[in-house]
Design goal:
alpha/beta; binds magnesium ion; about 30% helix; 4-stranded mixed beta sheet; binds guanosine-5'-diphosphate; binds 6-O-phosphoryl inosine monophosphate; globular; 10-stranded mixed beta sheet
Length: about 425
């Protein structure tokens, strides 16, 4: 009998920080493998349970389940120092955590000089900076596509040190073009130690492993990082990250054919946030934006920066649903909006004076004016609710409105950061 299964994908539909970490953790009991397919330590995925909070950057969010294997796929970029720090903090509570982590030999390495180049490039851009997390993501993916990168598998080669020197020296030449002070020695020493430790992890040919597991009938969930509007092709370029954050990224970042993709779970906040620069049509620069930021504790999990907050943007959401082939929606942080009397939803844009319902080429403030509908707020605490029929009618209407406007069902509603504050509809 052919038991072959498909890979499900969970990914963000906005500008990241939708709550992917929390939901992957909740869903892990239904999967035997969780696999990250792109991004790197620019991600910060938060999980809360039993009164504790954990933030993961490189390690997949299935790591707290003793029976799940966690794969760091070929599409991911790894900083050995950050990886080691993450692993050490996990080992405090679970000495066996590393046994459940498999790393693709084809994943690229973030060098200390990649981080310096990221910082130097942002510094040189001044007010036009991307607002990068400064983790070296852009320069590492540039070296990957430029065919200069170093991969995890290279750590096993006898001439790794020489390869490292060649790339580092190339970076130092590039850094010479910037007026950017730096010191490298200490970081480099630390990096080498952590790279040595990374080499001792379970390194695998992950695409082969994934195919083997699919043939055996294992259920696999691919975990996205960032969000669709930060995708290198489909995001608000150039204010994006340097990887494919959309569903196609799961194919290239794990080596799965498109016809092996099963469900595509698209996750979004009941409002919008963005951290870093770039257009954000529904951004609230007033007290309401400030209230949402405070109530939703909207500060970056990786950088601590305040996140920009705004109303839910339906043209952007529909666009993300389309680009990803989303089969079901997951709505997060609905509890945060309980403080508001009335809730705005952007239903369309006025683009250069004409009403459009799709996402145009550019969504800069001078070109786009959001058109809003306001729905009554529910003004009730949702955080202790455990099932759908306990929701206030006004909140059910909010769910209904979004489902009708997008044509996709919401399968999970999250009403708080804890694992338990999750309602399956
Ligand atoms: P990710 O990058 O998509 O995993 O999301 P982050 O972890 O960066 O940001 C989501 C933040 O919202 C984290 O602090 C979570 O603990 C928190 N969170 C997740 N779901 C909910 C929810 O339903 N309500 C509230 N109030 N907080 C939530
Ligand atoms: P998670 O996985 C939110 C943003 C940065 C910046 C832009 C480019 O936690 O949702 P980069 O460091 O990738 O070169 O930064 O992308 N960004 C994120 N914003 N959540 C993330 O990840 C992000 N990763 C990158 O703020 O605007
Ligand atoms: Mg995050």
């Amino acid at each position: 009998m052919n038991k072959a299964t498909n890979v499900d994908i969970l990914l963000g539909l906005q500008w990241g920080d939708e709550g992917k970490g929390k939901i992957v953790d909740v869903l892990t009991k239904g999967y035997s493998i969780i696999a990250r397919f792109q991004g790197g330590p620019n991600a910060g995925h938060t999980l809360e349970f039993e009164g504790r909070k954990h933030v993961l950057h490189t390690i997949p969010s299935g790591i707290f389940h003793p029976d799940a294997i966690n794969i760091v796929g070929n599409g991911v970029v790894i900083d050995p120092i950050i990886f080691q720090r993450e692993l050490d903090s996990l080992k405090n509570t679970d000495p066996d955590a590393s046994k459940r982590i498999l790393i693709s030999r084809k994943a690229h390495l973030i060098l200390p000089t990649h981080r310096l180049l990221d910082a130097a490039s942002e510094h040189a851009k001044g007010k036009d900076k991307i607002g990068s997390t400064l983790k070296g993501i852009g320069p590492t993916y540039m070296d990957k596509t430029g065919r200069n990168g170093l991969r995890v598998g290279d750590l096993e080669l006898s001439d790794f040190q020489e390869r490292y020197q060649v790339l580092r020296d190339k970076h130092l030449k590039l850094l010479g073009d910037y007026t950017f002070p730096f010191s490298l020695e200490e970081e480099e020493e630390k990096w080498m130690k952590c790279a040595e430790a990374l080499k001792e992890m379970q390194l695998i040919d992950s695409e082969h492993y994934v195919h083997q597991k699919l043939k055996e009938g294992s259920a696999i969930l691919a975990e996205g990082a960032q969000g669709s509007l930060l995708d290198i092709d489909f995001g608000t370029y150039p204010f994006v990250t340097s990887s494919t954050t959309t569903a196609a990224g799961a194919c290239t970042g794990l080596g799965i054919a498109p016809n092996r993709i099963g469900r595509v779970l698209g996750i979004f906040k009941a409002y919008c946030t963005r951290v870093g620069s770039g257009p954000f049509p529904t951004e609230l620069l007033d007290d309401v934006g400030e209230e949402i930021r405070k109530e939703g504790r909207e500060f970056g999990s990786t950088t601590g920066r305040p996140r920009r907050c705004g109303w839910l943007d339906l043209p952007a959401l529909r666009y993300a649903i389309e680009v990803n082939g989303v089969t079901e929606l997951i709505m997060m942080k609905s509890d945060v909006l309980s403080i508001l009397d009335s809730i705005g939803i952007c239903t369309a844009y006025k683009y250069q004076g004409v009403e459009v319902s799709h996402l145009p080429y550019r969504i800069d403030p001078e070109l786009v004016e959001p058109i809003y509908t306001f729905l009554p707020g529910w003004k009730e605490d949702l955080t202790k609710i455990t099932e759908y029929n306990q929701f206030p009618e006004t909140f059910k209407n909010y769910i209904d409105y979004i489902e009708k406007a997008t044509g996709v069902k919401i399968s999970i509603v999250s009403v708080g950061p804890d694992r338990k504050q999750t309602i399956h509809l």
